[in-house]
Amino acid sequence: MPLLQKIHWRTIISLAIILPIGLSYSHYRYSISWLNQEVGGIFYEIFWCLFAFLFIPTRRAVWQIPIWVFIITCLLEFLQLWHPPILNWLRSFWWGKMILGSVFTWADFPYYVVGSGLGWLWLHLIWGAKSK
């Protein structure tokens, strides 16, 4: 199997692992008392790192994607302070709320750092396993 095809399949399998975990967490977080809403930011960051890597599977992207995902996620967090009608309308849908969020909180930022770091590690492992 060609190298990029292996990386592509590892990324798809990784997405198939992290997506159900993240969605399950967003659904069940209220029934597990020690988990808080902000922990979901970890899964969110990892998902977007993997998703972007699916389309840009390069060694350079292993480093750049987590940085850009972190920056964009932070910008989206600050965007939650703004409530024009179009953003409120988008947030009224489940997918809009999942992507854009609805409530700004400083507590999300440490989880974004952890999630981006884990996203980098995951991409690094996918790339590092390319020759095996």
Q: How would you describe what is shown here?
A:
This protein is mostly helical and 132 residues long. It has one domain (3-131). 74% of the residues lie in helices and 0% in strands. It is built from six helices and no strands. The chain has helices at residues 3-28, 40-55, 59-79, 85-91, 94-100, 108-128. The longest helix is centred in the N-terminal third of the chain and has 26 residues, at 3-28. It is elongated and about 50 Å long. The relative contact order is 0.17.
Helices and strands, with pairings:
Layout: H1 3-28, H2 40-55, H3 59-79, H4 85-91, H5 94-100, H6 108-128
Helix pairs in contact: 1-2, 2-3, 2-6, 3-6, 4-5
Largest sheet: none
Q: Kindly give the count of domains.
A: 1
Global mean pLDDT = 88
Q: Based on helices, strands and strand pairing, what is the structural class?
A: mainly alpha
Number of strands: 0
What count of helical segments does DSSP give?
6
What share of the residues does DSSP label as strand, in percent?
Answer: under 5%
Percent helix among the residues?
over 70%
Q: How far is the N terminus from the C terminus?
A: 11 Å
Radius of gyration: 16 Å
> What coarse outline follows from CA principal-axis ratios?
elongated
Low-confidence stretches: none
State the order of secondary-structure elements, H for helix, E for strand. HHHHHH
